[in-house]
Amino acid sequence: MKRESLSCLAPSATRLLRTLLLTALVLTACGAQAAERVTIGMQLEPPILDPTANPAAAISEILYGNVFEGLVQFAADGSVIPKLASSWDLAADGLSYVFHLVHGVRFHDGSAFDAGSAKFSLDRALQPGSVNPQKSRLAKIRAVDVVDRFTLRIRLGQRSGGLLQSLAWGAFVMVSPQSAATNAVQPSGTGPFRFFGWRRGDSVTLVRNADYWGKPAVLSEATFKFIADPTAAYAALMAGDVDAFSNYPAPESFPQFAADPRFAVLAGTTEMETVLALNERVPPLGNLLVRRAISYALDRRAIIDGAMFGYGTPIGSHFPPRNPAYVDLTGVYPHDVAKAKALLAAAGYSLGFAVTLKLPPPSYARRGGEIVAAELAQVGIRASIENLEWAQWIDQVFTRHDFDMSIVGHAEPMDYDIYARDDYYFGYSSPEFKALIAALDDTIDATRRRDLLQRIQRKLASDAVNGFLFQYPRLAIWNAHWIGLGFDNVLGVVDLSRVHDDRVALRGAYIGRAAAARPQAFRFAGGVLAALALGLCALVTRRFGAAYLFGRLAVLIATLLVATAIVFVVVQIVPGDPVRYMMGLQADPDVIAATRHQLGLDIAPLQRYLHWIGGLSRGDFGSSFTYRIPVGELIAERLQVSLPLAVFALLLSTMIAFPVGLIAAAGRGRAVDRVLTSVTQLGLAIPNFWLGMLLVMLFAVGFHWVSAGGFPGWESGFAPGLKALTLPAIALAMPQAAILARVLRGALIDTLHEDYIRTARAKGAGEWQVLWRHALPNALIPLLTILGMQFSFLLAGGVIIENVFFLPGLGRLVLQAIVQRDLIVVQSVVVMLVLAVVMVTFLVDLAYVLVNPRLRVPGGA
Amino acid sequence: MSVADTRNGAASRNAGLVIGAAITAAFVGVAVIAQIWTPYDPAALSIVHKLQSPNLHHWFGTDQLGRDVLSMLMAGAKNTVGVALLSVIIGVFIGVPLGLLAACPPRGAVDELIMRGNDLVFGFPSLLLAILISAVFGPGAVNAIIAIGIFNIPVFARVTRGGALQLWTRDYCLAAQVAGKGPIRISFEHILPNLVSLLAVQGTIQFSLGVIAEAGLSYVGLGAQPPTPSWGRMLNEAQTLAALAPSLALFPGSAMLLFVLGLNLLGEGLRHRREPPE
Amino acid sequence: MTQPGEVIRPSAMTPAVRAATGLLEIEALSVSIGVAQIIKNLSLEVGAGEILGLVGASGSGKSMTALAIMRLLPLHAKLSGAVRLRGETLTDKTETDLCSIRGRDIGIVFQEPMTALNPLMSIGDQVAETVRLHLCVSVAEARRMARETLDLVGLRGAQGAMDRLPYELSGGQRQRVAIAMAVVLAPALLIADEPTTALDVRTQAQVLRLLQELVRTRNMGLILVTHDLAVVAQVTDRIAVMQQGEIVEQGATQPLLRHLQHSSGRALLAAAELKPKRGLPHRQDTAPVLQVRDIVHEYPSRRRSLWRAAEPLRAVDGVSLYIHPGETVGLVGESGSGKSSLLRVILALERPQAGEVHLLGDAFSSTRGLSGASVRRLRRHIQAVFQDPYGSFDPQWSVERLIAEPFYLLEAQPTAAERRCKVAAALEQVGLSPADARRFPHEFSGGQRQRIAIARALIVEPSLIAFDEAVSALDVLVRAQILALLAELAERLRLAYLFVSHDLNVVRSIADRIYVMQQGRVVEHGPTEAVFASPRHAYTEALIAATPKLG
Questions:
Q1: Would the CB atoms of C165 and A853 count as touching at under 8 Å?
Q2: Which of C223, C16, C21 is nearest to C108 (CA)?
């Protein structure tokens, strides 16, 4: 382009042109280097990324074997095979193990892996203040010694047959002394992938570790995307937003994927036994006859068909069928209503009895619960269903044992020992069973162990401790082009080490993604807003005096203070202990106490409130319980989605509403008005989340025009970000546009009845001139209030829409935080939204006062 | 041009009122009928009959657990109507007296206090607080009623106050004062009866908003709990089955659309009857 | 470039046509909305430089005639007949053509100055808009013309007057702006639809003078639509009297006024010519029924500074007055003079900041809160009738219930039968039938409603009734009837009246004594005829001078 031709454009136009060119270039470049990246969908997001500090299965699912590695690992059949320890020797008395470590291994932080770091890892897990969730499994270790640089010895106080298995767990991976403290947010291990980034509420990204000690991975990058909602999971797979789903949460649509040549599926099993947990402390359920009657009443096939759409293996005891030691005990209690009734009668409950059935959120429990309740009703047991959030479940069922029945999956491998624990939540207590477990732990001989395991299974079945329902299936779905995705293993982790895409010639070089600069747009927008606010304040001060402004500000601050108090109080009475929730089912009490202290939850509420308020006034929102990062950062991250979404939706709704309102008002009483009014009537009646669902079904699943949801992040470019927000913005904007258009039409018609409109006509102004020059400016005044309210509503009101489109926005952050009992996040976000609403209302009021001359006279109406 | 639209407009609005009233009556009627009768037990599972498309036995088909969709819709209407109605009643019974009180002359601290309280509740993102309330007290229909009802209070308070302030400028309030009546007595004798139609209009609007809010809460699992059927939860459950049985998502959504449409038409019609065109 | 003041003529019109006819000819004009015939077969002519008064009671169709000339009728109105301006038939024009005629060839000024201006547009822009709609001139040129016209209508004012917004102007000033908008392009015809009805008498006189001047200097035709014969008598050349959509009388002003034949015209004339009251002077030696002493009433105003309390607005500033039994006292003043605030204090609806009101010798309204019981006991002795006959009644209450409402003040509540009986008696006293008790207020006309309001005031047999502009909203004919009723009642029941009004003619016709209020103070008081005959205060003098008189 010639210099002259550019110079005649206004400077801003030149800039715009340059930006457009650059954007186009970047977009082309992005398109060229697709593939070799895999995106894997997961149902649950890990709270932190350190498997040694938190029991959440999602942590291991992403990181175990990929980022972190242990001394040993499980083979597919549950046996233990070498990993960082290439071999090991067991002393004859069974009280000492010697591990020979692999040479030349380096942690991602650069430090070398040797016996010293191995000892550090184990000691860290065992030390008194440790928060390791599986700490008790290594209780028999007396000492860990460094023999030489690559030899490690573990000495035991007693023999422990399960030690090797325990060491294969995710909680005992090897960590570097240098970086262990920051693993929660910046995990650093020895695996084939390095941690790259974590977009909270959305995804974790790993990149290939080029210096891996073993065979390096083919894949250059892997993103784990968190999609909790079964529907969203379905849509994401169909729309190609994710390449794979490791644990697909919607079995009803699984056959559809199985039949689709674009996808490969795997219906395997997991280590999770799904049981109808019975509280033996409750009188009828303490009775063995009653428990057996319940077992007879259960029709496992119907439950599996109904709740899992046929996926899942019936079980008769607490043991995975794929284990070599498994015995099929499903025949012990066949579905037999008559026998169940007879047993109940024999136990003295011929008229049945009433129980509560408390269900955690997953669909297997909720759906299974409805079926179980119906089946129990057939034998006279009246179960009333109560649905709980996980935190409530842990609080009521697991901790306080305040339940009769529950349905829950026990995901940990080889977890039959829970039946030997004292005061475990289902309250089973059997000396014989405890003796069996003790004997097992004291046994190393494989045949004898197998025999003991089978006796354990039989004992549990004969005592009908719980209603054993089914082994949870592993339903994995992935794009058929991806070869080598490993899903079927004991710990349920996603093994990426051999994954590649058959469409792309293998490229060795890792194409790094430049860490994107944090978008400046938000700071800019914030600046503009602040300038606007200050300008308004200055204008108002000039016109009404400082007293008026200060008065308004005082009211604003008082409102906020009251709001913080209300939110704090409400949040305090939310049932459920955040620490319990964070630390999981098997956490030790001293670990929980330590965590409570660490989070500052052990101080008095009033003090905590003052502390929080003090922080707020300094702009410090505190630190998230679950994510362990400043809440302010979390909110800022989510605002990058929620704010543009709100603005986008507001713009859309305004752009639709203005022409519609104007045309309807101009043609008032005529056909065009009636048609438009009817359309807005329809727009008012559509619930936005249903509209969202319909839009996804049509444009993402049907036409593949846009992705079904999710958010790529602004660093991947403005256009993709905007594209991802389009459908949600439309869904949000439509009902708002309908409201706006109706209000505008009404305000315009009201204005058209005013005398000055007649005056304008008398001057000779035509219909449109009157509408445009006289009616519209006056009609805008009432509209201003509506617009302000809509913005506030859109900022906070997208909760459900954010769920439909799985956008990592503020609403979802709050919903998640409520579920996870991340109190500080909840209270901070709600207060921040209140602040936003109050501020917007305040500014709109000021603008209103300024624009409306009738309000300008002091004391005027 | 002061008379905008008279004959044609009035006729179509009247039609709107009739249609709206008919739809509303139909849904309320279904809700009442569902109290005593539905074609099938809406909670009865029949796994063998799951995911049937609409047929002679099951007019709207069956869901993933073999329940009759029509029966669930009817029972869901009962739930929706109940929640929305009771939340409106909460708003009316608390909000209207507050609004009347705020408008009573001489307006001062009481008015300021009530209106600031109003602003405070308005300031809370309604859906979030509803979610929070449901999280605190546990999900369920009663808590959904409370959560939605709380937000109806300031709406009715504001509308009542606005209407009352206008009526207080009428000379008949002055005449009643000259007749020795106090502000509270005047509020109930003169103001409230003249606000009834205004409140009826606002009531239908809040009712329709309540229907959508209840569906939203149930959709995220915080409304009525199973086995009580609710439209929002039906929609949620239907989402994953969109490809297998799209009708499962279409029926509850359309029911909601139709009901809200009917309520809006009714409200609109009532409003126009209240303020006939000049 | 067209100069302001130069007459801009439509190009299509030839001088020959103009010379042959008057400026405006209306021939057999009829307007109907639905089945209602608003204007019937109306014919009228206006010449250049002529002022035609179009007079009639409200509802006689005079405003609709004005709108019909401009074709600014309601959407569903049907029009027949012909309107010709300088020979050009307006009734054949399309809407687009009419747009170019309105504002350029015909200007119009409406009644309500408070609402006739766009509140968001500066007055300069609003006047300039007329120019810009019709002439292709620059913004600066249009504003220059606007400024000149604003100067012409007497809004010279300070620098920046062009940029003022309507809310900053008084009613009279706004009406001047409206006139400026109508005449900026020097139209051949100006229509003024009740241009002074909403204004104070003094402002009314000024605006009328302005209109007269404009007509004389520009040789414009002016149609002055009004219900007030006195206004018409002062300024018009010719009068057309309308009744029920028809012109019943037409002719040159003075002769017509002298020879009004038709009943409607006669009634209009009679009503406009309210006779000053000629009664016996009241004995002043009895104890006054109402004694008002040094009342000060203030309204708080908005604080402008954080540290200084705002100066309150002082609406009533040390007013004293008294009323003897059976006496009618008038309280006159322009709007904003504090009459209504004073009345609210007298009725004990608001508490004064200083001073006391004694009713029948007992304290009734004072700075201290008086005990509710004693105020209530006294209340039955003072009742009130308010201005708006439509807003005075709860639309949902029956007439019986409405009239019986003050019974609430009695210690012994009457039985239902007594109540019915008393309501019937009260209705008969005000000239209504006892059967009306079962009807609802919307079934009555404005005048009848004011009678119901009087019945309500009478029901507890008070000593004093306060009237707050009680006849201002009524048609002149009805007004005369109500005033006659009041005079009769006062005589018969020996009632004392406090009659508050801005209309000097009305007060003169009923009051024995008057008080004149200006800016919260009583500036003059005395026997009515004495004050009218020789006002002592300049303000009173100005008020009386500005009040239009017939003949």
A1: yes
A2: C223
